[in-house]
Specification:
It is a single chain. The chain is an alpha+beta fold and about 150 residues long. The protein is about 35% helix and about 25% strand.
């Protein structure tokens, strides 16, 4: 019995570590970004226009496009009325719960399916690419169209 317990104590941490290693790095990066992003929104901040804060998570090209979009006059141009990263006009209180519900390979990027809420009823697809050795968001798509 003692020998079995000893072996379990030695190998259990290895099993736990191996399980954590099975999460693809692009999914971890997408999860960290979305957790940070929704926390910013819920605390009353506007992370969509905080380009410096977005740099660790979002590609340079996408940030440049966000900056250009932010300079447009909404009275003259058709500016989106939903948030680019959460694909919604607002959020639910339970959206502080963010999870990865799937990944998929695409020729353009690694797609990471991010669910918001306890029921995981709002899902977006983060298109993740490597930039300077780090996984970053290139674009986001809504999974469902209502």
């Amino acid at each position: 019995m003692k020998k079995s317990l000893f072996l379990a104590c030695i190998f259990l941490p290895c099993v736990a570590f191996a399980d954590q290693g099975s999460v693809p790095p692009e999914a971890v990066a997408a999860l960290h970004f979305n957790q940070w992003y929704i926390a910013q929104i819920m605390s009353g901040k506007e992370p969509l226009s905080d380009y410096t804060a977005l740099k660790p998570y979002v590609t340079r090209e996408t940030i440049s496009k966000l900056e250009a979009l932010g300079k447009l006059d909404p009275n003259e141009y058709d500016v989106p009325d939903i948030d680019m990263f959460i694909k919604a006009q607002g959020y639910q209180n339970d959206w502080k719960t963010v999870s990865v519900v799937g990944t998929d390979y695409d020729a353009a990027c690694m797609q990471v399916y991010i669910a918001y809420g306890e029921k995981k009823d709002h899902v977006v697809i983060d298109c993740m690419v490597k930039e300077d050795g780090a996984w970053k968001v290139r674009s986001v798509a809504a999974r469902d169209f209502n």
